[in-house]
Amino acid sequence: MKNGKLQVAVVGCGGIANQKHFPALTNQADKCEITAFCDIIEERARKAAEKYGAEGAKVYTDYQELLKDESIDVVHVCTPNVAHCPITVAAFEAGKHVMCEKPMAATTEDAQKMMDAWKKSGKKFTIGYQNRFRTDAQALKRICEEGKLGDIYFAKAHAVRRRAVPTWGVFPDKSKQGGGSPADKECKQWLEAIIEDKEPLVKPEQAFVVTQILDTIYKAAAEGHEIAL
């Protein structure tokens, strides 16, 4: 820390970093400051540094070089999914805390490597599943746990994306992203109860699960991509 503020580095200065991470971090200017920006496209990192960086913020194209800076406390990993694992593991080995964008990794093997590195490091680690921290989600969880709704026998959640099929950046590139929406959202819910070893809040008389995977190809002519979801 410097002057009571966490020194933050961001690896990956593309869409999610510009839309979410940079604004969120600068809104906490009394607690942290962004002192390092890394992207394989140097100009992109430089523009981000000029707009969001602290005085003297550094620009990198190699995250390994960035991690040599001992003043950095926290690393935000905002790269394509396949790069989450090597960067996160390297950050822990360099003694940094890590905030990694969702999904955690492209494979279970990579996720395990990240977990092993985290446990060995003794540092903080979080994935960008922000909705669980929403006020409404926290309130609903608390009400259920307090038993104010009695025995819950049915629960339903529904979400609709109204912003069209994403065709920008690396979203259409399965080799870099992979997994689609389930990787970002649904699969963590399927496994969460097992991982956390918690009793379910819903107590159905009968339980059944219906899963449906649609292999749908969207042709985005303007971008020249074929998107497999």
Automatic annotation (TrEMBL):
Signal sequence annotation: none
Taxonomy, superkingdom: Bacteria
Gene3D superfamilies: Dihydrodipicolinate Reductase, domain 2, NAD(P)-binding Rossmann-like Domain
InterPro entries registered for this protein in UniProt: Gfo/Idh/MocA-like_OxRdtase_N, Gfo/Idh/MocA_Oxidoreductase, NAD(P)-bd_dom_sf
Gene Ontology molecular function, alphabetical: nucleotide binding
Annotated Gfo/Idh/MocA-like oxidoreductase N-terminal domain residues: 7-129
Name this polypeptide is given: Gfo/Idh/MocA family oxidoreductase
Phylogenetic lineage: Bacteria, Bacillati, Bacillota, Clostridia, Lachnospirales
